[in-house]
Every structure is written in structure tokens, then in C-alpha cells.
Design a protein that fits this description.
The chain is α+β, with helices and mostly antiparallel strands and 84 residues long. The protein is 23% helix and 25% strand. It contains two helices and four strands; from the N terminus they run H-E-E-E-E-H. A four-stranded antiparallel beta sheet has the order 1-2-3-4. The longest helix has 15 residues.
Length: 84
């Protein structure tokens, strides 16, 4: 299991444990406006994942490149219960 899949699984489990009704999340892509030495466009880069509760609208994210003092999983969806 890749790190990305493990973090998304953990985010979903935390949200369900807090009582949130979650739907399909969506990956967060960072568009690449750069080109390589031959002029070919570089591919977009996957940087995270976004999940939102269908009932209360709270969100949670996975950050694949957190700052040195940052966290991988965060947001209201993992910190606060649904309708709290």
C-alpha cells in the first residue's frame, strides 16, 4: 500500500469515527507550468486529497508534502464530530 493510499484510508476512518457521512473525495493536483530541457511539458503533480462531509460540510485533507512542522492529515472533519 502506498503512502498516499494509507493516508487517504486513515482520513476516511477518522471521519467515519467522528460520525461524518462522507462521499467520494477528490485528489488535489498541482498543475505544472514548467517544461524540461527538450521543451516537453512536465506532468501535473499529486499533492493531496480532499474529503467533505455531506451533512455538515466540514472538510479534511491529506497533504503529501507537509512543512517540517506540519501534519499529513488534518481539518475539521478529523477534529470535530458531525454537527458539533
Amino acid at each position: 500500500m502506498t503512502r498516499y493510499r494509507r493516508l487517504v484510508r486513515d482520513l476516511r476512518q477518522c471521519a467515519k469515527w467522528r460520525g461524518h457521512k462522507i462521499g467520494n473525495g477528490k485528489p488535489i493536483w498541482l498543475p505544472s507550468y514548467a517544461t524540461d530541457a527538450t521543451g516537453k511539458d512536465l506532468p501535473d503533480r499529486l499533492v493531496g486529497y480532499l474529503l467533505e462531509c455531506k451533512n455538515c460540510g466540514k472538510r479534511g485533507t491529506v497533504d503529501l508534502n507537509p512543512l517540517p512542522n506540519g501534519i499529513d492529515i488534518g481539518g475539521e472533519i478529523v477534529a470535530i464530530g458531525c454537527n458539533d
